[in-house]
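Protein Record: Sequence and Backbone Structure Tokens
======================================================
Tokens: labelled as protein backbone structure tokens, with as many entries as the chain has residues.
Task: work out the structure tokens from the sequence, keeping to the layout shown below.
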Amino acid sequence: MKHDKKISVHTAAHARLLTALLFLLFCLGTGAPSVHAALARKDAVQTSDLYNPHPADGDILLPMPGGLKMAFRLAAVPARGLLWDMPLRPGRDDIANPGRAYYDRRFSAALSAPFTLDDLPESWRAAVPGDGGTSFFYLIAKYEVSRGQWRAVMDPKFSAGNITADDARPQTGISWYEAVEFTRRYTQWLLKNAPDSLPRFAHDKRNVGFLRLPTETEWEYAARGGQNVGSQQLLQEDFFPFAESCTLNDYAVFRQGGAFVEEAARIGSRKPNPLGLYDTAGNVAEMCMDMFRFSIGGRLHGSAGGIVRKGGSYLSDAAAVMPGRREETPFFFADGPASAQDLGFRPVLTGINTPGGDRPEELAAAWQAAGEQPASPLPAARNPLEELDRLLALAPNDAVKANLQQLRATLKENNIIVARQKQLEAESLLRTGVYMIETIRNYASRQKALENQRGNMAADAKKTEGDSRTRLLEIIALADRGLEQFKISLDKSLTFYISKVAETCTLDDATFADALAQLEKDFAGKDPFNENMRRNLAIFRDHAERWRKGTPLARSAVQSRLLERRFQ
């Protein structure tokens, strides 16, 4: 019996071994769940991975050859009218790298866009932020152009049935001229195969939206988060606000420490920015339409050089992937058009500034109204432009008339400059008041914390004797001096805040309303910072309107409202 049992165990083990060998031979012979198969699954790519691996609300998809698409996001630029724009300061003040100051330092610029709400297809308007009727629009690609998208436009033999994992990576190794040619071919394909997918100007049958490379200002506005971040963050911060518990590594493919990344990642491999764009930091750098100029004295230098390259790449360090970083790439090297394996692009969809249809009349009306009224009221005096119009009607000859017309044009231009400066000053006044609320709360919070600590130390001092008690009393005395300083700082900050509220009484109703509307757009973002700024703006508006109506609140009531925990 023991012998039979040993044979049985041996036979069972032999059978298990034979089964394992047969299974191994089967896997090697047929390619069933093997290492190669596992790798194949890992590298598998779907068609959508080439153009929109992360679908989201607000995406605008345009068709492409071969059944692909290109995803865009809508960039909204707040402006008061067709002839107004949004002041911006692209670049970066990198204190840690003073040698790059004339490359990167912030400079004065302005941004607007050609499309109004009426120019956008009906299906796109769901992507327009609130109060979009007073914004102007352009579209920017959600991702860097992938190799698959490049082949779809540039290779007549492209087939979506022959895509590989590499087709989901950004297209690189191309010149600026080739990138421009891509935008030309793609626009031409859309006009022929999907003309209704492009925006058109109201009542203009000839002009239509088209693709091109972005300007540096268009690129940087969108890369920093566009309309979804506050204007102060656009002007002051090096990067857009991170989501909670996130770091730069969650948004960018770049070189960290001494470790080099071997190649670009697939498009959309990290998190999106507040506008919904992917890979604006790192992965591959991106070409702009602009030529590179040094930043000197807050403006761009007069020498136009090579291509502006933005965003850094997988070969860059953390400083080089900041949105404000400015680098130059030549149009040509000695051996021909310049290209790089870490340089790609993303197009914008935009249009011309002078289309037909209703726009010429709208532009003419906007220009006619601009600067016709003095920026500041002139008591007991007529509008100088009206006086000049009267003199023009009485001009004795053409020479006098020409001189009066030149004077009128100069005064009108000056009125425009003064009016815009006045509007910016009004916005700055309101913005100062909004931020002073945070300063006041900060002082009050620190004062409260110190009061609690002082109370705890006073309680401990009653239970302590000797040197420990002496030391506690010294610290309590120091805390008392600190509390007095907080009291003074809080009092002075409240006085300054109230002065800003009262100063709004110097603004006319239109200027005050325009400034409020602009700040509401500036703080339109959905992050905690902008939500808090919107609450502060509502408080400042309430206080200002009371002052403007002649019914100001008492100082104690103002302070109570600023420091209350619950907001109405």
About this structure: The first helix runs from residue 2 to 30. Residues 5 and 487 are 93 Å apart (CA to CA). Residues 2-43 form one domain.
